[in-house]
Specification:
The structure is a single chain. This protein is α/β, with parallel strands linked by helices. It folds into two domains: about 5-65, no CATH class; about 70-315, 3-Layer(aba) Sandwich (Rossmann fold). Helices cover about 40% and strands about 15% of the residues. An eight-stranded mixed sheet has the order 1-2-4-3-5-6-7-8, with helices on both faces. The protein is globular and about 70 Å long.
Length: about 325
């Protein structure tokens, strides 16, 4: 057997999680490999490795191309009209977004990302694990309580998503591949504007055009800050027009719910999302999923949830 075939055999066995040493292979090892892959003779073995060689070259070429892909970051773009900014300094300050996108690329997926912070704090940022993945990220700031009250921040979220629908093609993005996501308060905002169609309708955008909703550990009942603004204790659950649960519907975009461990999450967040999943299924929505990230708390789930998001949105590029 040639040296190149020995190297390829070592690689394939390693990827199959087989224990082997970096040395020449015995006849027994080769025969075992042939049996596992139903290879009856050296001719079929040689053909198999020729195919493996081609696949490896393709994979390495793809990896190399991805490494060479350049990305552009444009910051502090206004998503509100200039007249609104002139009339309200807080709009001018907070109603901004950043867009991170692959250069000289067409038809990419875009994730509109809303930061967390309990609707009282936080700032736009590009989630680290979403960078360099061939997608665009639109990171959004929105106005915060107590400077504004509900539903101002929900409307800001809708305005930012509407901006994305109307402008992402200018950067090379596909309007049919816009995903809306966020962590905690950002997850709540994602669900609200995706399920209550009235917010985006105000900006002449159909919420059903959203490719996916992927909230990270977001409230599905009325957000505790909205309850607080009305003098209701955070321990008193409410489901009203400001609760994503109030707007369950059969024709909503695909909904991917992600939470931390039910025993480590805050404020019963897992159970809220589990109920949301169940009620979406009850009304006939067939594209709702729920991921519970074992051992991760509310903040800790943020990083692994990004990997879930990346896996879920692969279907948009198939």
């Amino acid at each position: 057997m040639s040296g190149s075939i020995r190297i390829l055999l070592f690689f394939v066995l390693k990827t199959q999680n087989r224990k082997t040493e970096n040395k020449a292979f015995t006849i027994f090892e080769v025969e075992l490999f042939q049996q596992n892959f139903n290879l009856k003779n050296m001719k079929s073995l040689s053909t198999f490795f020729s195919m493996v060689s081609i696949l490896l070259i393709i994979q390495l070429t793809a990896i190399n191309a991805q490494e060479k892909q350049e990305y552009i970051l444009q910051e502090n773009i206004s998503y509100r009209a200039s007249v609104e900014e002139k009339q309200d300094n807080y709009i001018a300050e907070r109603c901004k977004l950043d867009i991170y996108y692959p250069e000289n690329t067409k038809g990419f997926t875009t994730v509109v990302w809303f930061h967390g912070g309990g609707i009282t704090s936080g700032s736009k940022h590009i989630p680290e694990k979403l960078m360099g993945k061939g997608i665009s990220v639109v990171a959004v700031n929105y106005r915060l309580s107590p400077k504004v009250k509900c539903p101002v921040y929900i409307d800001d979220a809708a305005a930012a998503v509407a901006w994305t629908f109307k402008h992402i093609a200018e950067f090379g993005g596909d309007t049919g591949k816009i995903v809306v996501s966020g962590h905690s308060a950002g997850g709540y905002l994602s669900s609200m504007i995706g399920l209550d169609k009235s917010y985006l309708a105000k900006y002449d955008v159909d919420a059903n055009k959203i490719a996916m909703l992927i909230p990270f550990s977001g409230h599905t009942i009325t957000h505790f800050i909205i309850r607080e603004e009305s003098g209701i204790e955070g321990t008193q659950p409410i489901i009203d027009e400001f609760a994503p649960l109030y707007h369950v519907r059969k024709d909503a975009p695909p909904l991917i719910l992600i939470t931390g461990d039910r025993e480590r999450e805050m404020l019963g967040r897992y159970e809220e999302n589990a109920y949301m999943m169940r009620m979406m299924k009850v009304v006939g929505h067939t594209k709702t999923k729920l991921y519970e990230l074992d051992s991760f708390d509310h903040g800790g789930m943020y990083s692994p949830a990004q990997e879930v998001l990346l896996n879920e949105i692969k279907v948009l590029s198939d």
